[in-house]
Amino acid sequence: MPHPPTLTAAVHGISQLNDLQAKLKEPQYQYYSPQVIATLGNPESNPWYQIASVGFARIEYQEKILSFQSQLTKTLFDAGIMLLSGTDAAIDGGPVFGFSLHDELALLVDAGLTPYQALATSTRNSAIAMQALNERGTVEEGKQADLLLLNANPLGKYCQYPADRRRHGARSLAFQY
Fold first, then answer.
1. 49: left (phi over 0), alpha (psi -120 to 50) or beta
2. What is the pLDDT of residue 168?
3. I need a surface site. Which of 1, 10, 49, 51 has the fewest CB within 10 A?
């Protein structure tokens, strides 16, 4: 059974708990509507803040849970469990679509996966989990491909990519190869 660690969800909730207003000023939040930002800006109506305040209020616990999640992810991977990328971005006010996927991939690398292994959680492994590897998931003749053109090799220093993407932008292409 494949497993999506969704490491970015805990990081997201904790960062809102620790400095909500600074979190909401990050560039990716410009893509949320003013109504969602108003809801998120109020700790009493922000679901991420509420959840984080229950379990992550103490700094020492925050560090322990993030460390545990990272170690568990690597242990599952080493045991042969197929990992999938996931972010919980679909939950209102959660990690922002697109941005959070890149954050998740960087956290998978931080957990001990290689950049190639982390990228496979969003490509090949996802196609396998959806029983669609014959149609997508790898760049091969006859398959559908969603490509992201980068300024650098993501297998080199992937963890620097999210910041690079926000500075320089990236172009996404979808086509039949």
1. alpha
2. 35
3. 1
Where along the chain do its domains lie? 7-176
Angle among Cα 84, 31, 176 to the nearest 5 degrees reads 50
Do 142 and 125 touch, CB atoms closer than 8 A?
A: no
* H runs (alpha helix) in the chain: 7-18, 20-24, 34-41, 47-55, 59-78, 99-110, 115-120, 124-129, 161-168
Single out the residue of 165, 72, 73, 172 nearest to residue 117, CA to CA: 73
Amino acid at 154: P
The answer on pLDDT for 124 being more than 90 is yes
Task: With beta carbons less than 8 A apart as the criterion, state whether 87 and 101 touch.
Answer: yes
Say what angle helices 161-168 and 99-110 make with each other, to 10 degrees. Answer: 150
